[in-house]
Design a protein that fits this description.
Elements: E1 2-7, H1 14-23, H2 28-39, E2 44-53, E3 56-65, H3 78-88, H4 96-112, E4 116-119, E5 122-124, H5 130-137, E6 143-145, H6 155-163, E7 167-168, E8 175-183, E9 194-201, H7 202-218
Parallel strand pairs: 1-4, 3-8, 4-7, 5-6
Antiparallel strand pairs: 1-9, 2-3, 8-9
Helix pairs in contact: 1-4, 2-4, 3-4, 5-6
Length: about 220
């Protein structure tokens, strides 16, 4: 089973998450092909830049949206729309940029063929956004306080964290296949503006443990 672990030691936003998914193997060209297929040629394109945040080599993703683009003008397949609705129902009213970034996260996850997501507690350094606080009060996300003094979690990041993971906690045991960092646009003082993504295979680990146990028993 392919796992994705999200280490949100400096909070989370959709842009950082998308960059992290690109850093662990999602391909920009395939995401852009997905945008073209779902929204029309050239309506939305993801661009990437290799950068560094507080010493962490990272991928910074940005979305270029055609002027006048209207998400409502392109009905999505029901399976995609259901996934989008599961996140956006937690928001007041996502902007077009938030909407296309969310769709980019969906396309990256589909490309990576992730079967389960596990997430660390979300670090928050300032007064949480009302949506973040509400999701925390509902038990949909787990917050961990930081003393940095400014917010680290966007409302869309909180909504994604409330939707994607099967659970919150420490990174599960797995055979790690990739580790990558997604960067936000700004350089923060004292806090790395990144999300760390780790992918791995869990079935391989269990199979190896079984093989090792059988080998030891046969000695």
């Amino acid at each position: 089973m392919k796992l994705l672990y999200l280490d949100c030691f400096a909070g989370i936003c959709a842009r950082r998450l998308l960059g992290a998914l690109l850093a662990v193997g999602a391909e920009k060209e395939k995401i852009n092909l997905g945008f073209d297929t779902l929204l029309g040629d050239g309506a939305v394109q993801v661009q990437t830049a290799d950068t560094e945040r507080s010493g962490f080599p990272s991928v910074c993703a940005s979305l270029v949206v055609r002027h006048g683009f209207d998400p409502a003008a392109n009905p999505l397949p029901s399976s995609v729309q259901k996934w989008m609705d599961a996140v956006t129902c937690k928001l007041d009213c996502p902007t077009p940029t938030e909407w296309v970034t969310l769709l980019g996260v969906y396309l990256a996850l589909e490309q990576l063929k992730v079967q389960e997501v596990v997430c660390s507690p979300l670090c928050e350094g300032g007064a949480p956004h009302p949506i973040t606080q509400a999701l925390s009060d509902q038990g949909a996300i787990v917050l961990r306080r930081s003393d940095c003094g400014f917010p680290l979690i966007t409302s869309l990041g909180a909504a994604l964290a409330a939707t994607l993971p099967a659970r919150f906690g420490a990174m599960p045991e797995m055979d790690i296949t990739a580790i990558g960092y997604g960067a936000g646009a700004a350089e923060w003082d004292g806090v790395p503006n990144v999300v760390r993504a780790v992918t791995g295979e869990q079935g391989n680990l269990f199979d190896r443990m079984l093989e090792e146990a059988l080998f030891e028993a046969a000695k």
